[in-house]
Fold this protein.
Amino acid sequence: MAWYPGAVKMELQPESDSQAAIRPTQFIVHSIVAPWTARRTYEYWRDSTNLESHFGVDYEGVVGQYIGTETRADANAGANRRADGTGAVSAETASNTSGSDPWNAKQIEDLIAIGVWLHKTHGIPLRICRSHSDPGYGYHSMFSQWSTSGTSCPGNARIKQFKEVVFPGIVARAASQNTPPKEDDMPTPAEVAKAVLTYDGVISVPGAPPTNPTWTLSSVQTEILKRVDKANLTLAAQKQTIDELVKAVATLAAGLGNLDPAAIVNELRAAIESIDIRLDVPDA
């Protein structure tokens, strides 16, 4: 037996154990033509008749379940249990005493929730029954085979709601629950790299123009490379100057002969002063 987790279990005995098993293929909704609570409906099935439904749905949003959905209930005449073992699950809903009022919002929500559970639990297909034996969803007066003496149940207002609100609600909710949530696509390595390099939140390089206290990583890299290039130019200029000094000293030493130390110093100073030394490096 299957019991709906959203219902208050009010098991009817001996019916729950003694009545035949079914394979549920339909869900049929009714109006009980009385403003009863789910508990009062249970008491009526228990004390006053040998008929019963699987569920009772009252005005306050309480759902009572009286028989497991894999056991026959006797509210649907020829749809209770067929020769092939299939049968309908039934739900009685509280109404006014003429069965003319519409379902309220709580009842609609309960019927949708039960309908979705039946689809997920028993595989009842998400369609309105096309014949009295066709698997799907329906209401009591839809086919004469579902009533021994004819009926207008659940009433015109509720039939309209079934077609326009309840059944579409079952389909929509069941479809949303059957569809796995879409996972976000993983970013590519290129997208990750671009996001990191262009994220504006890196502390700027000391000494950089104070136009923005935080830079992108790519801007920091650019600034560092500019400074490296400038340092390399400075080193190249220094090397050239040193090379020229070495040449000048070598030339001077070759021509000094027997000059005294003071003369060597004077000649060296004059040679150094004659070299055009340029260490200024233009900004990149």
